[in-house]
Design goal:
Layout (H helix, E strand, L loop, with lengths): L1 H19 L56 H9 L7 E2 L4 E2 L6 E6 L1 H8 L10 E7 L6 E9 L10 E7 L2 E7 L2 H7 L14
Bound molecules: heme C.
């Protein structure tokens, strides 16, 4: 009987523990954040905590919740593709419509994350680490999405484009991906820190 009571108390303590934790604050209060913290994305089986303080930003995992950082794109091809297929960038600022690219990208619609949005807004010559743009690629009819081009800054210093991660996927095939790809940076060098989109977004 006493054993049973202990078990009930232990279970109650476990259930109560998340409530005792703070909001999803990036661990500022010294606590390890939990998926059950207020403001954090909910837990999905097998989803690890990635963004500081907020779990569940990996490919296929839950995205943004109020109070948590926006879900950020991974910089390896497999995870990034899953992240793109889940349209994890859908909450980012975007162009209002699909339009013809002035470059080689066909018909496109560009999305930028908050970090890049802020940096473009400040007309920075160099964007901070974590700045990212996703470009949806469309068929000639402008309604069928056929892939994505992506650029993600992986360090504060651009290092002549070498610290940007580039990714291009079209018609169910990985065209190219990697750090500082010559094909991409050769053309993107015309933009401020390799970003060429017209800003404010059209
Ligand atoms: C011949 C020039 C050219 C090449 C090569 C090129 N791009 Fe672009 N890219 C552009 C232009 C111009 C834009 C601006 C938007 C538009 O008109 O498409 C752009 C826009 C983008 C954007 C949206 C953010 C931004 O910088 O404006 C991404 C992401 C992107 N390109 C990725 C890539 C990747 C990845 C590669 C290499 C596989 C690549 N691009 C190669 C010309 C190029």
């Amino acid at each position: 009987m006493l054993k049973d009571l202990e078990a009930v108390l232990a279970a109650a303590a476990i259930a109560a523990a998340p409530l005792a934790m703070g909001a999803c604050d990036g661990g500022d209060d010294g606590e390890t954040e939990s998926v059950t913290d207020a403001g954090c994305p909910g837990s999905t089986g097998g989803c690890p905590g990635t963004t500081t303080g907020c779990p569940g930003t990996s490919a296929g995992c839950p995205g943004t919740s109020a109070g948590c950082p926006a879900t950020e794109p991974p910089t390896n091809a497999d995870d990034l593709l899953a992240w793109l297929e889940a349209e994890s960038y859908s909450g980012w600022a975007s162009e209002s419509a699909v339009h013809a690219s002035s470059g080689p990208h066909g018909n496109v619609k560009i999305f930028i994350n908050q970090t890049l949005d802020d940096s473009l807004g400040a007309a920075n010559a160099e964007h901070p680490m974590g700045a990212a743009a996703v470009k949806e690629l469309y068929d000639a009819d402008s309604t069928t999405r056929i892939g994505w081009s992506v650029e993600i800054k992986t360090a504060a210093d651009s290092n002549m484009g070498m610290n940007w991660y580039w990714f291009d996927y079209k018609n169910d095939a990985l065209n190219m991906e990697g750090m500082g790809l010559g094909t991409c940076i050769g053309c993107h060098a015309s933009g401020a820190d390799y970003v060429t989109v017209t800003y404010p977004l059209q």
